[in-house]
């Protein structure tokens, strides 16, 4: 009987000792990230039938179990992914918002200053100071656009570096998770029916938490192992095998991503297939805000430069020469070839009509031939629209949204089936615009034509002012003769026109519009002809008529954003960009704050369930200490009984 008592005492002592060790382990790891508190699971040992009843044999430790809630853990993962994404996006778009809306560095004030300089030129076309101010303000505008584009490129470089850093962390976590899968399976058995390796499982779960900060994570249990997938299902860990996320830099400005095993081929993963986490936030920001901001600035620069150059070429400078380009504008850019292209073809995108220009990039691809005819498709990436009108195209070049896409080279190398290009027509516009004029005398403030009434006219009719929209459509001098019977101006020379006129009416001949005023004379029974001569303006130094046309471009709708025509002025287009970025920055700030609050709640809920409570552990320590002391007393009593039996037997 004493022997049975000793066995019971020994089991109680062992259970109390396990409790003390486990409690101490909890206390020691109270600050260890990802540690789940552990508890001793014990139960009664099998009883023995003594005839008069079953007598217990003490207790046994069934296992050490970690307190872990799958529900609260999954909430931490999802909220961690969402909060990291919105925070990454918010931090970076805030930089663009402050940069674009800054009165000192934004483009809006520079556009206003530039056209103020042109307006001053209109008032004083022959004044050297006014001409210099116009030239300087144009250079300042180009410099401001260059500076903003440079800062956006720096931001892009930083984002790409952060993407690479995030990828390195993801790959490191994948390797560690795969190694822990192997260690856990070895410790517990492949079927997962052994004793749980609690500390190893905590380490693996914590690595998955860290991984969820970088991207969306999905786990699938397979025995004791976890199969880990990121984004929309790309595998990163399958059992003991880890995969790699890599950068595929087909486009140095926007490197794409791919996944693959340590050995073998790489599969390209679209940016939108890796949502959530810091990586998803960076990819989302780069595509939807950074690219849009840079493309919009480029569209403004190209649109302004092309419109201003076109009107400037319609004027005459102070030396009597036709106006030349005021700005240097890069209208042609080389598209980026797809990573898997099998041909050496090259493709150029050339802006031909800025009024139809959008802020989107474009995908140009060669599809399988149809009925023996080549088959191409152009997709506007921003909205996925296939242009034009969902049609496939038999050949290149093709012009859509004011951009001509054409294979380059002489002769041009054709695309193979499956080849594609990504064209960015406006991306480099703001970074490459520059002032072309080098001297104030080259400013074409004057109009190329003048209108004057013949001194012999009997009436008071006047022709003017002239607005020149195109050149080369007429032979100079052109004579217009008033026909009182038909009330028209009939031309003598080329082109032959007959223009109805009344006092205050407008007319156009060969791209030159004018306003007619006054009352032409009407003689006796014979028709009297008032004659007007349009002759070359050979001295443009004091003429401001083309400068007036240039100044009017400030408020003219010269840009479009849907490919359908001009609906925006330069100032309005920039204002829309500032407004859109500001609204997105405000939205992401609110989202980041809200998502962070949700994450904190999820972490607190999980910690309250699985974390170590030092007050509770102190209570457990005292409880197990008392149990250990009581078990020791049982052992001591059993020993005394045993000694008493020996004495009686002696």
UniProtKB/TrEMBL annotation:
Domain Flagellar hook-associated protein FlgK helical: 94-327
Biological process terms in GO annotation: bacterial-type flagellum assembly
InterPro entries: Flag_bb_rod_N, Flg_bb/hook_C_dom, FlgK, FlgK_D2-like, FlgK_helical
Domain annotation Flagellar basal body rod protein N-terminal: ranges: 8-35
The Flagellar basal-body/hook protein C-terminal domain, residue ranges: 608-648
Name of the protein in question: Flagellar hook-associated protein 1
Alphabetic keyword roster: Bacterial flagellum, Cell projection, Cilium, Flagellum, Secreted
Compartments in which it is found: Bacterial flagellum; Secreted
GO terms for MF: structural molecule activity
Secreted found in the keyword field: yes
Main location: other
Pfam families attached to this UniProt entry: Flg_bb_rod (PF00460), Flg_bbr_C (PF06429), flgK_1st_1 (PF21158), FlgK_D1 (PF22638)
Entry annotated with the keyword Secreted: yes
Family to which this protein belongs: Belongs to the flagella basal body rod proteins family.
Domain Flagellar hook-associated protein 1 D2-like: from-to ranges: 339-425
Gene Ontology CC terms, in alphabetical order: bacterial-type flagellum hook; extracellular region
